[in-house]
């Protein structure tokens, strides 16, 4: 029983440890796959952003190339700066008229901001606001934020800015700035690609921007209190991920990504809303072309059926791993059972189920060693069935086998769990009794004799046994065979004295 409990504990421990190892391995594998997938999502958003931005740049470059080669227009710009005040209005109108076709081309693609200014930063024409001019784009306030006096404050806007120099006779006479708002950019992204987009700006950027003067309205984002988004004047097209879903996503991610937002690095996360997975990808944005100053994030929201596959594969691997572990453990258990069965077959008598002669020597040597080490008593009982040959001759070997099996059962019932019973050969048996001296062994032998004598067998009725008892003595018994011989001598005297009796071998 104890052996079976130990096996159960061992197998259960192996199963639990194997499952822990499985979970750790496959969970680590799942996280690695998810990490790679998120990197791919960031790369995808970057490619979408870059492709869309390049499209706008190609248009801006086209406009600039045409303007920079228009000598008449360049002469007008040069003349405007050096002309008298009463002439400036007329010249400015001419410049505006010359630029109008190009500006209308830009507006067709939702590029609404086109500004011309002198090298000192003074604006002389805004195509989107022709009535506003004369102000300077340089400001000391800008230096505090951008820490770079070569940049213009007006470059700090919610969008992509392209600055172009205008030369006349190899002399810089003016600059042209074309701006594409992030609001336009995200609308273009939504049209071109299978996602919905938003951009958010950090409050520090907005507080240092000229846009804080009220020209545009910024609303605090529900994803983080430190970020704001621009109220759009363009109708949103949320055909894939609705505003309601985006709001739910933002609220669920609010605490989860707070630290990541502060790192100002690209990342992606997955969130489950109403039973569906969405991948939310964050790409850092900067208004500068050559300086990495992250002012916020371009965000894509995309429903993603692929992400759930990672969890499904994970649990599939766990289940499959469990099946394999169980099969392996069952195989080991079966192998051990077969091995034990083979050992039992090799150690037991086929007819009676008792230990055989080979097993006797294995156990006897162990018990003798223990008796010697701890100086404890060890006795041996040897007995056989009286007139057993007559039973075989009169009733046949089948009845003889029945008697042997039945007698073995009687002996088992009347011995202790600590006693070992062996079929020595034919009708002869041995009982090894640890922790038992000669008197205790004699008492047990007498008990067995009476139990057999009083039992009524089928067909043969009553059977008797004769027994010999000896106690191990390390001074006399050099080995187990010496002890057997002394017990066998006692058995022989029982036979000579009339059978059905117990005789002990006394040491003088």
How many helices? The count is 14
Main beta sheet: 6 strands, antiparallel
End-to-end Cα distance: 43 Å
Round the Cα radius of gyration to an integer and report it. 50 Å
CATH superfamily of the largest domain: Reverse transcriptase/Diguanylate cyclase domain
Q: Fill in the CATH topology of the largest domain.
A: Alpha-Beta Plaits
Helix content: 40-55%
How many β-strands, per DSSP? 15
Structural category: alpha+beta
Order of neighbouring strands in the sheet with most strands: 6-7-5-10-9-8
Which CATH class of the largest domain applies here?
Alpha Beta
Compute the average pLDDT. Answer: 87
Strand content: 15-25%
> How many domains?
4
Helix and strand element order: HHHEEHEEHEHEEHHEEEHHEHHEEHEHE
Low-confidence stretches: 140-156, 209-215
How does the overall form come out from the CA principal axes?
rod-shaped
CATH architecture of the largest domain: 2-Layer Sandwich
């Amino acid at each position: 029983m104890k052996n079976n409990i130990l096996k159960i504990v061992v197998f259960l421990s192996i199963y639990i440890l194997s499952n822990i190892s499985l979970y750790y391995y496959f969970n680590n594998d799942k996280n690695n796959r998810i990490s790679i997938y998120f990197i791919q999502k960031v790369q995808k958003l970057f490619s979408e952003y870059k492709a869309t931005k390049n499209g706008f740049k190609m248009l801006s470059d086209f406009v600039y190339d045409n303007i920079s080669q228009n000598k008449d227009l360049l002469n007008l710009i040069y003349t405007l700066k050096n002309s008298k005040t009463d002439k400036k209005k007329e010249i400015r109108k001419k410049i505006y008229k010359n630029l109008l076709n190009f500006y209308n081309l830009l507006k067709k693609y939702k590029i609404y901001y086109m500004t011309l200014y002198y090298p000192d930063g003074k604006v002389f024409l805004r195509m989107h606001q022709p009535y506003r001019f004369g102000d300077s784009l340089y400001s000391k306030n800008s230096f505090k934020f951008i820490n770079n006096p070569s940049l213009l404050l007006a470059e700090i806007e919610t969008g992509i800015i392209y600055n172009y120099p205008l030369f006349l006779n190899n002399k810089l006479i003016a600059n042209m700035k074309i701006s594409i708002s992030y609001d336009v950019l995200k609308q273009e992204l939504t049209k071109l690609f299978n996602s919905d987009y938003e951009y958010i700006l950090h409050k520090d950027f907005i507080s240092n921007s000229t846009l804080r003067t009220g020209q545009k309205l910024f609303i605090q984002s529900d994803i983080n209190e430190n970020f704001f988004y621009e109220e759009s004047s363009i109708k949103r097209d949320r055909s894939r991920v609705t505003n309601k879903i985006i709001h739910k996503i933002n609220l669920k991610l609010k605490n989860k990504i707070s630290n990541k937002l502060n790192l100002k690095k690209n990342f992606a996360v997955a969130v489950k809303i109403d039973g569906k997975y969405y991948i939310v990808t964050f790409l850092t944005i900067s208004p500068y072309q050559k300086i990495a100053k992250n002012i916020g994030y371009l965000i894509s929201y995309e429903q993603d059926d692929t992400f759930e596959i990672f969890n499904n594969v994970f649990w599939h691997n766990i289940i499959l791993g469990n099946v394999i572990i169980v099969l392996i453990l069952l195989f080991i258990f079966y192998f051990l059972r077969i091995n034990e069965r083979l050992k039992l077959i090799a150690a037991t008598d086929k007819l009676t189920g008792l230990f055989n002669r080979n097993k006797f020597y294995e156990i006897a040597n162990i018990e003798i060693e223990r008796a010697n080490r701890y100086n404890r008593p060890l006795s041996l009982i040897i007995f056989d069935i009286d007139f057993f040959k007559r039973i075989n001759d009169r009733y046949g070997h089948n009845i003889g086998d029945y008697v042997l099996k039945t007698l073995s059962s009687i002996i088992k019932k009347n011995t202790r769990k600590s006693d070992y019973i062996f079929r020595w050969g034919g009708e002869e048996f041995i009982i090894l009794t640890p922790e038992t001296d000669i008197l205790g062994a004699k008492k047990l032998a007498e008990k067995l004799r009476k139990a057999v004598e009083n039992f009524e067998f089928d067909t043969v009725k009553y059977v008797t046994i004769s027994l010999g008892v000896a106690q191990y003595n390390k001074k006399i018994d050099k080995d187990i065979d010496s002890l057997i011989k002394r017990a066998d001598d006692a058995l022989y005297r029982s036979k000579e004295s009339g059978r059905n009796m117990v005789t002990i071998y006394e040491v003088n």
